Amino acid sequence: MVCGEANTGVYTRGKPTLICRNTMERQSRNSDNWRWLCWCESGLSLGQSRHERCGPPGKIGAHCWIYLARSLTTYFHPGINLKKIHYYSIKLYEKLEEETGQAVGFHQPGSIRIATTPVRVDEFKYQMTRTGWHATEQYIIEPEKIQEMFPLLNMNKILAGLYNPGDGHIDPYSLTMALAAGARKYGALLKYPALVTSLKPRSDGTWDVETPQGSVRANRIVNAAGFGKELFESDLDRIMEHIEIAMEMVPVLKKADIINVVNGPITYSPDILPMVGPHQGVRNYWVAVGFGYGIIHAGGVGKYLSDWILHGEPPFDLIELDPNRYGKWTTTQYTEAKARESYGFNNIVGYPKEERFAGRPTQRVSGLYKTLESKCSMGFHAGWEQPHWFYKPGQDTGYRPSFRRTNWFEPVGSEYKQVMQRVGVIDLSPFGKFNIKGQDSIRLLDHLFANVIPKVGFTNISHMLTPKGRVYAELTVSHQSPGEFLLVTGSGSELHDLRWIEEEAVRGRYDVEIKNVTDEFGVLGVAGPHARKVLQKLTSEDLSDDAFKFLQTKSLKFSNIPVTAIRISYTGELGWELYHRREDSAALYDVIMNAGQEEGIDNFGTYAMNALRLEKAFRAWGSEMNCDTNPLEAGLEYFVKLNKPADFIGKQALKQIRAKGLTRRLVCLTLATDDVDPEGNESVWWNGKVVGNTTSGSYSYSIQKSLAFAYVPIELSQVGQQVEVELLGRNYPATIIQEPLVLTEQTRNQLQKNGGKDKM
After folding, report:
1. Closest to 17 (Cα-Cα) out of 65, 71, 74, 69
2. CA pair distance 65, 34, nearest whole angstrom
3. CA separation for the pair 229, 16 (Å, rounded)
4. CA distances from 696 to 463, 564, 667, 680, 685 (A)
5. In what side-by-side order are the strands of the sheet with 35-40?
6. CA torsion 47→53→59→61, rounded to 10°?
7. In angstroms, rounded to a whole number, what is the distance separating the alpha carbons of residues 357 and 369?
8. FRET pair for 367, CA 20 to 30 Å: which of 76, 183, 186, 324?
9. Is 263 helix (H, G, I), strand (E, B) or coil?
10. 266 falls in which pLDDT band (50, 70, 90)?
């Protein structure tokens, strides 16, 4: 198969769309005398079956079909985790006929995605470094090789190709029948048609499923419903522009006759990705819905879900498919706007730090949105608008995505200096926030978290682990009053974490009250060496280091505005997080900004915060730690108390992991690049081989080099070890350093008090 550049082809993602014929004789559908024309992720795909009986290259023979009623099976996916889903699906389909005796019509001629612009070539290079540490084969090939592999292509604009051996196409009907046959072979009972008329949850967590054939009692429900077989009227005029472009790329298509048009619906979620997993707020209710590309996801998702159900935890990180990434803010209007946008953007270049603007803003805006929207570039986080970076008069304010440093690079550097040298304010309202209280609240949290429970009036960083000892979540836990806690997590983890907590509370029959207060409270972060001086002007409460210690939490008032203040900052500098009623956000922001004029106070966004936290070697959930990692290899030993009395989830597994020893470890790297910085998920090389991957990265404005976290084999994890990091087709020398690169404010103060200036 050959896949065309963006704007090429009929964008149907493998749905039956167009049948062309240049023959007087119709052949058997299962004949080998077929060439296959499909439409895939980057546009046009053209390939041929394993037996070439269709005449010489460049000519469609007498008994040759061009046929689109096939489903594409591609190893390629721009995301990291979904590559695993694609890989498993293809490997399953390769052996399905042998295992079930059911033919599936699976052909694997390979695919080539075509680049006709320099930026698309950059995208291919970007994808190559994210593939090197996966099992999938993928190569960038030159135009000469493309023409050799597919002579029918018009080579006038071709710059490069991204080649995936093993990509192919499969008959969806035969595949479905084979999967059903395999399920029956291993004991599954299939009943169809079986219209579900009602789902009734029971108090014990089971379900009554009502059908015309009677009621079925189920331990759990997996909703895998789709949109049926309904078709629309044909409308070739709407897509003729794309067909004509496809014909320019493959001129032989101009001689083909269109004899049939099939126009069918495709399921699209707001972000294109399906929703897979258990649903928050409903016991034992699972979903596998919203598949725009069902065939390539089917095998892998089936395995993923079944493993999760059997073993009580996901087999690997796949949070981008978590159905709980959507919430009450996801209205019908938002969904429609995003689905249209996502479909239209099917084949655009996929940049790092990409933003898409349809359907925004939602109802989830902080009290500062109106104040800040004209001053900054906003990012979208679980329905919230949050400042990524701020611009000054005369600076380029546009959205300029790039694989290299772009218009936000210098402004973010200014924000970095603002926090390190003066004082900055950041809107942290998108944090997920939960109140937990009740007779068993301490027992529940002691069971959930690997860390100890903080004393009343204090906060700590705690991790929820899976039974196998992987990091399911990271939260800050604040003990506000005896038995009453405030739990805070990242915006993208809100319902992901809440579901886990609620299910454990039910499973263990803990007497607790759990309330999601995310939308009720705003959060402002104030950080920098002058943070205390500014805030002290607004309260009679003593904010000195002795009176308001690091990781302490207090309820107080700033200019008569009630806040819960926690002395903590993800920047690693002196700072507080101020939790307050959402309706008070604008007023609180105004009094802080007015109080800080003498100190040169200003805003900063999440890009600067990321650079600051990396220099302090602060880990981020979803990057340095997730369901693919354990806390020991992630360097989180300080937060894991294996000697605490409570038998927290994952404790026994962690003891076994420690006894066996680690095979890899998270390290901090510095690397000298030119105009590109690591983002995360790039390949790490040593001695000519890929040995690991980065997890996140940024430019360090303190040492003026790139900085990254990476997992490497334990034998390569020593300080001073030289490796290479692949960025946009080039391997840059990198060195493992002693972390952190920059000491936290708290550590600097401790060293000064202890007379340790030389150590600093």
Report:
1. 69
2. 6
3. 11
4. 19, 31, 11, 4, 16
5. 43-48, 35-40, 65-67, 18-21, 257-261
6. -120
7. 15
8. 324
9. strand
10. confident
